[in-house]
C-alpha cells in the first residue's frame, strides 16, 4: 500500500471485531498501519463477498467485502477529502462508478411477510438502500458539474457475480462509455481555480 503513487482508501469489514475496516495509504502522518500490506491482500479482503468468497485472513483479522457497509463509497471519499486533506467541498470533483443496479419490483407478499418471505429480498434491499443514500448525499454536497454517478440499470439476473464473462462486461462498458465519455472528459480537464479537482483522492471497492 505504501508504494502507491496516489492516495487510496479501501473499505473492508472486520469479522473478528465486528467493525468496519479501512485500508489507507500513508497520505497523512497518522496513517501508518497499512503501508506494509500487500495490494493483493487488500484486494482479496475488500472483495471477499459473503457466500461467494471466504473471509481473507490478514494480521489476525478475518476480513470480508467492504460492500456490506459501504456498497457505494462515495461519501467515504468526500469525508476523507475534507477531514484528512482539509479540502473545501467546492474543491472536490467526484466520479463515482458503481457495479450496475438491477431493475426489479418488490412483490406484494413482502407487505406482511415474515422471515421466509423477506429472506431473499433483505440483503439486496439493504445494499441498494445504502448505495442510493450515499449517491443522494454526494449529489447534494457536490452539485452541478462536480459530481457524476455512473451505475447503469440492468435487467434482473443479467449480470451475476458467479456467472459473468469478459465479453459481457466489455460489451456493457462499451455501451455506457458512449454516453458518459464527453462528460468525464470535461470533468477531468484542467479545472478552473474555483473548481479545482481533488487529484489523488481515490476510493476503491
The helical percent reads: 25-40%
**Alpha carbon gyration radius:** 18 Å
Shape: globular
How far apart are the first and last residues' alpha carbons, in Å?
15 Å
Sheet with the most strands, sense and barrel status: 5 strands, mixed
- Mean of residue pLDDT values: 82
Number of helices: 6
How large a portion of the residues is in β-strands, by DSSP E?
Answer: 15-25%
Class inferred from helices and paired strands: alpha/beta
Stretches where pLDDT is under 50 for at least 5 consecutive residues are 192-205
Instruction: Please write the string of helix (H) and strand (E) elements.
Output: EEHEEHHEEHHEEHE
Work out the number of β strands.
9
Describe this structure in words.
The chain is 34% helix and 18% strand. With 205 residues, it is α/β, with parallel strands linked by helices. The relative contact order is 0.17. It has 6 helices and 9 strands. Strand 1 (8-14) and strand 2 form a beta hairpin. Mean pLDDT is 82; it is low at 192-205. It has helices spanning 39-46, 67-70, 74-83, 115-118, 121-141, 166-188; strands at residues 8-14, 19-24, 56-58, 61-65, 94-97, 101-103, 147-150, 153-155, 202-203. Strands 1, 2, 3, 4 and 9 form a 5-stranded mixed β-sheet that branches. The chain is globular and about 55 Å long.
Write the layout of secondary structure elements.
Layout: E1 8-14, E2 19-24, H1 39-46, E3 56-58, E4 61-65, H2 67-70, H3 74-83, E5 94-97, E6 101-103, H4 115-118, H5 121-141, E7 147-150, E8 153-155, H6 166-188, E9 202-203
Features:
9 strands, single chain, two-stranded parallel sheet
